[in-house]
Write the structure tokens for this entry.
Amino acid sequence: MYAVTPAVADAWRALFAWVAARARVELDYVDHAAPLPLDALWRRADLGCAFMCGYPWATWPDAASRPAMLGAIVPSPSRYADRPAYCTDVVVRADAGIDGADALAGRRFAFTTPSSQSGYQAPRAFFAAAALARGGALFANTVGPLMTPRAVVDAVLRGDADAGPLDGYWHDLLRRHEPATAARLRTVASTPWTPLPPLVCAAGTPADAQSRLAAALVEAGSAPALRDVREALLMARIAAPRPAEYAILRDNATHADALGYRTLR
């Protein structure tokens, strides 16, 4: 989810290799890039440690099979205030004549997939009241599903969409590692803060292995050997999971439903 560039992907690989060795749990690094569906990844019985979007975790239909939380990244930029939280940045082209969220009415809005918190559910909740005030639809049309933040960036920069949502942590990694691309974008709004996608393992992972992985992740957040890796990943530390906090994602979606804004439109 956060392999913004090949260099960032290498940093994640190094982090997970260290965690596997420290936890004494064998982990095979598997590339699972788009268009492969993330739901298939999260349902793997051998899932050892992976990011999972918080919205599908909060709305998982069967608690017994829901992936188990291991930890959550705390990004280092100051706007995160030392929290394992994030927001969605609504971006436009830097040279677009769009000055704020109100100016998005009647525009074309990109999205990733309805199962994504940052790429769909967060903006749906954010725009629900404005859409209601306009009779239930805010945008001229929506562009998607585009599946990934990178595809949203490409659509906005090509002019296929006027605006789109970016996972805030992904956006900050883009600023750090691909500043020329980031400079072509401008943030016109950001959604409220919610829990950042957790690191999870399969529900059937033995409890002892889960505990060792969770402890190794927390240790990785401060281990001297990973200082350069954390710098590359804009990582301040790794926090212990707080599953109860993710209920807000389900509640926000339910509220948008109650307003009649069941889909971005």
Q: What stands out?
A: The chain has two domains: 6-76+196-244, 85-194+251-258. The first helix runs from residue 6 to 23.
